[in-house]
Amino acid sequence: MNREARRGDSESADSLFEFPITSGLNPGDIIVIAYLAIIALLIILFSHRIEHWALLCAAHLVVAALVTVLAKLGSPPRVAASPRLRVFFLLRGWYPLLLIGLTYKELTYLIPRIHPRDFDAALAAIDYRMFGVNPTVWIERFTWPPLTEVFQLTYSTYYLLPVILGLVLWRKKRFDSFFFFVFVLMFGFYLSYLGYISVPAIGPRFLSSIVEAQTKPLTGIWLFLTVRQMLDRAEGITRDCFPSGHTELTLLVLFYAYKLHRRSFWFFLPFGIGIILSTVYLRYHYVIDLVAGSLLAVVVVVVAKPLFGALGGRAPREA
């Protein structure tokens, strides 16, 4: 690792006051508010199919207001003037972790009402045209309980990798890198959420034609079923296949780990590869979902820096 990167790792805590992205609404906050506004608009447009639509819109307005207030209270000048306000700076950095989960759960309710048509048959047909087989059916010849166990556990680390990279950047007081990475995550997550609304699909493990063609059930050796059921309960039946968020966000985490903290990249790499391979092996996704998720990750990488700058941010140094 070069000297510039090492210097970035040892950035002073005082540096949080040097970056304009932490004063007022930063680019990540703006992405959050924009997404809340888009979903609120969709709720209004389809209010005839959405019970309590006015309450949902009001909730979106309240969350947007809270984000704005938190941006003001957690701004560097206020934090510098009163150490007690450092808690607001902490909340400002990490509130997206809670909001990503809440807005995802909202989709379970909204998608069937905004776009009440599943595209599973169309996505499966695209896979079949590409490969001449249903990939999840073809790949069952390689199923092996220990491998299934490993893949299911690895698939679950999808939720941990971005948090770990965020913690590394925060702990090293690289707040410029941290807020840029949060912006990328919010941008990536919310683009995928809009994709779920546009092309609802629940995945090959629920499509009757594929289920009937499968001849070998997935089995593990210890925690496979417990972890699978836990994820099913936590996520619910959300039409979240296209594009593959697991693929998109994993690629984004790997790319920005390489750019911002090289040592984390080498730690994440085997998990990232495992997450992407497991999406089809575990019958969560069609291959076309992975293609779409990969392309979306490329779009985010290409657009992220210019958009971040246009929204008032300053791109961080790279490793």
Features of this protein?
319 residues; mainly alpha; disordered N terminus; single chain
Beta-strand share of residues: under 5%
Q: What are the segments in which pLDDT stays under 50 over at least 5 consecutive residues?
A: 1-21
Q: What is the count of structural domains?
A: 1
Secondary structure: helix percent: 55-70%
The N- and C-terminal alpha carbons lie at a distance of 7 Å
The coarse silhouette is globular
Q: Give the total of beta strands.
A: 0
Rg measurement, Å = 21 Å
SSE ordering? HHHHHHHHHHHHHHH
Main beta sheet strand tally, sense and closure: none
Task: Give the mean pLDDT.
Answer: 91
Q: Structural class, please?
A: mainly alpha
Number of helices: 15
Describe the structure.
The longest helix has 29 residues, at 86-114. The protein is mostly helical and 319 residues long. It has helices at 3-9, 27-45, 53-73, 76-81, 86-114, 120-131, 135-138, 145-156, 161-171, 175-198, 208-213, 224-235, 245-260, 262-281, 287-310. It is 70% helix and 0% strand. The protein is built from 15 helices and no strands. Mean pLDDT is 91; it is low at 1-21. The protein has one domain (3-310). Helix 2 (27-45) runs parallel beside helix 10 (175-198) and helix 13 (245-260) crosses helix 15 (287-310).
Q: What is the fold's blueprint, element by element?
A:
Layout: H1 3-9, H2 27-45, H3 53-73, H4 76-81, H5 86-114, H6 120-131, H7 135-138, H8 145-156, H9 161-171, H10 175-198, H11 208-213, H12 224-235, H13 245-260, H14 262-281, H15 287-310
Helix pairs in contact: 2-3, 2-10, 3-5, 5-10, 8-12, 8-14, 9-10, 9-13, 10-13, 10-15, 13-14, 13-15
